[in-house]
Amino acid sequence: MNLSDIGTIKSILSRHGFSFSKALGQNFLTNPKVCPEMARLSGAAKGVSVIEVGPGIGVLTVELASLADKVVSIELDKRLLPVLEETLAEYDNVKVVNDDILKIDLKKLIEEEFEGLDVVVCANLPYYITSPVIMRLLEERLPIRSITVMVQKEAAQRICAPLGTRQAGAVTASVNYYAEAKTLFKVSAGSFMPPPKVDSAVIRLDIRPQPPVDVADEKLMFAVIKAAFAQRRKTIQNSLANSMHLDKAAVTSALEKSGVSPTARAEQLTLTDFAAIANGL
Fold this sequence. Notes:
Blueprint: H1 6-15, E1 28-29, H2 34-41, E2 48-53, H3 59-67, E3 70-75, H4 81-87, E4 94-98, H5 106-113, E5 118-124, H6 130-139, E6 146-152, H7 153-160, H8 170-178, E7 179-187, E8 192-193, E9 200-207, H9 218-230, H10 236-243, H11 248-258, H12 271-280
Parallel strand pairs: 2-3, 2-5, 3-4, 5-6
Antiparallel strand pairs: 1-8, 6-9, 7-9
Helix pairs in contact: 2-3, 6-8, 9-10, 9-12, 10-11, 11-12
């Protein structure tokens, strides 16, 4: 079954009375080159298991299942369950779970489904939940090796931007604390049905065994990062005082301790700088 063929896709969806949901950000891949490459670069292999988010009709799922020992696909849309039952019928190493990736107990799922196996995540993420999904996977410190996801091109540029550059944002610094991010390849809007209005890119986040900086209070550091980029055109001194409702003298003192110039702006700072500011506070 060629799940990248538009005629095949339309036939399957028509048979099950399925229509695309804009609210769920459903765009199905029709470029036959994308999913095999994405699966290969995700680290899916013998001895490895995969958590997939939003399998759609299973075009990426079948590629992952052909490489990995086991794939668990988490699909929110109940209407796709009978579709996936048909398209994945020949793969006995795939399990589809009808649940919400932002609510499901991922630690429990990994313990129950993947004992003794390395775990990677691979997904064609709906644009509207890109950051929440990525940050949940990172913040929970799950026993996973990497996260390979397709996201909106602009989101990929922001996540993978070097800290200390104009493209960097709060998500750049937050992701960098947990993982090393890199862009694997770009995907044009014409690779999907229906085509979205923007291009995409596949990125991989390789989970760090340890954070690259020492910080006494992680939550405080992330609050500093969020505050700094919330008013990125202001100096770090003013953005922290305003966004975190701190006394300016206290901020000045913390910046002196950290060795960061009060006139620096968020986009000029590294993760080491943000950790030092948090420790100073």
